[in-house]
Write a structure and sequence with these properties.
This protein has helices at about 40-50, 55-80, 115-120, 130-135, 145-155, 190-200, 210, 220-225, 230, 245-250, 260-280, 295-305, 325-335, 345-350, and strands at about 5-10, 15-25, 30-40, 90-105, 110, 125-130, 160-165, 165-175, 180-185, 285-290, 310-315, 360. By secondary structure, it is an alpha/beta fold. It has 2 domains: about 5-140 and about 325-360, ATPase, nucleotide binding domain (Nucleotidyltransferase, domain 5, 2-Layer Sandwich); about 145-315, 2-Layer Sandwich (Nucleotidyltransferase, domain 5), CATH 3.30.420. The strands form 2 sheets. Strands 1, 2, 3, 4, 5, 6 and 12 form a 7-stranded mixed beta sheet that branches. The protein has a 5-stranded mixed beta sheet with strand order 9-8-7-10-11, sandwiched between helices. α5 crosses α13, α6 packs antiparallel against α11 and α11 crosses α12 (about 295-305). The two termini are about 20 Å apart. Bound molecules: adenosine-5'-diphosphate (ADP) and magnesium ion (MG). Adenosine-5'-diphosphate binds near residues 204, 292 and 295. Adenosine-5'-diphosphate binds near residues 15 and 294.
Length: about 350
């Protein structure tokens, strides 16, 4: 018998909703179907505006909470229709929601997209608000995907999994299931998207074509690398409220050609990811997932600078790189229903492993 769950994810890139249908009846999860619901420009802007303090925030937050709850429910309906499933065929939905604030130092993180609406509109038990129990135990509330990586990618060789979303995070999987580590390494695509938006009026540097035409500015790179986040030891997590255009204004970028800045920001992402892995493994297999895998220039720089590592897509082990995080939230929902913990204390720094999320029964 199938054991079907739906995972819903919308990450720090604020590009849209990833929805996946996953079967957990075998030892390795099977992605049955997936669906991407991009945000249109005006919705994206409204969400972005909520990521920073502004006027009339509470009303705007409430409206967006409802709107996104409905959008998440639409993603579920689409998957059900396409796969001719009834609501009773799916055990539960795990919804990450959309992060609009992440301040773990103040024990505060906020993901929106009302799970009451998702449960009401789909008739499926919905689990959401995964991060705050970990934060309540003094953890970062992030990253949460390493527990899933650990469950499916642990092996008898050293591996590192890199998820390149708006923010990049790494999972360090030493061979033979020794302690797992995981932490945010800093910007993934967030700065690349922001700079492309500013100078190309496009939401991203498609395949890294623009950045590839530039020249990495070593001095600038070294200055950017001095940010204390890169030197901070794990557990650590960050968000787009830190690594954004405002952060870039700290540096005198007018002295450079925009295309050279893009090349340098791409190098910053590649180098901070590799530096994080080097701290743990001199050699290992690196598996990449997240939207950053489509930036060919970024991948080229990872391969060139990381030539000692064997670098592949997570596809090599049957997990499509675009759907990893949404699959992780389907898995986290399964953990919660089974009253199993979803966080790894060595990763988040929480005092205790906990059952994560709130359950909104159908
Ligand atoms: N063709 C592409 N070229 C360059 N970058 C891409 C491409 N496709 C996706 N991306 C990057 O991936 C990001 C989305 O990745 P995703 O894993 O969904 O991140 P998040 O979890 O932060 O939403 C986009 O914002 C973009 O930066
Ligand atoms: Mg995304």
């Amino acid at each position: 018998m199938n054991e079907l769950y739906i995972g819903l994810m919308s990450g720090t890139s604020i590009d849209g909703i990833d929805a996946v249908l996953v079967d957990f009846s075998q030892s390795h999860p099977t992605l049955m179907d997936s669906f991407y619901l991009p945000y249109d420009i005006s919705l994206r802007k409204r969400i972005l505006d909520l990521c920073y303090p502004g006027e009339n925030e509470i009303n705007r937050l409430g409206e967006m909470d409802v709107l996104l709850g409905k959008q998440f429910a639409n993603g579920v309906h689409h998957l059900l229709r396409k796969n001719q499933l009834n609501t009773t065929d799916v055990r539960a939905i795990g919804c990450h929601g959309q992060t609009i604030r992440h301040h773990p130092a103040d024990q505060f993180t906020l993901q929106i997209g009302d799970p009451n609406i998702i449960a009401a509109e789909t008739g499926i038990t919905t689990i959401a608000d995964f991060r705050r129990r970990d934060i309540a135990w003094g953890g970062q509330g992030a990253p949460l995907v390493p527990a899933f990586h650990h469950a499916i990618f642990s092996s008898d060789s050293d591996r590192a999994i890199i998820n390149i979303g708006g923010i990049a995070n790494v999972t360090i999987l030493p061979k033979n299931k020794k302690t797992v580590l995981g932490f945010d390494t800093g910007p993934g695509n967030a700065l690349l998207d922001a700079w492309a938006e500013k100078y190309l009026q496009q939401p991203r540097d498609d395949h890294g074509h623009w950045g590839k035409q530039g020249t990495v500015q070593k001095n600038l790179l070294n200055t950017l690398l001095e940010d204390p986040f890169f030197k901070q030891s794990a557990p650590k997590s960050t968000g787009r409220e830190y690594f954004n255009l405002h952060w870039l204004e700290n540096f005198s970028l007018d002295e450079y050609q925009p295309v050279d800045v893009q090349a340098t920001l791409t190098e910053l992402t590649a180098q901070t990811i590799l530096d994080a892995i080097k701290l743990h493994f001199a050699e290992c297999e690196i598996l990449i997932c997240g939207g950053g895998i489509h930036n060919h220039f970024l991948l080229q720089r990872l391969r060139e600078s990381g030539h000692r590592y064997s670098i592949h897509s997570t596809e090599k082990y049957g997990i499509h790189p675009d759907w990893m995080e949404a699959m992780a939230f389907a898995w986290l929902a399964k953990q919660t229903l089974a009253k199993q913990p979803g966080n790894l204390t060595a990763v988040t720094g929480a005092k205790q492993a906990s059952i994560l999320g709130g359950i909104y029964f159908a």
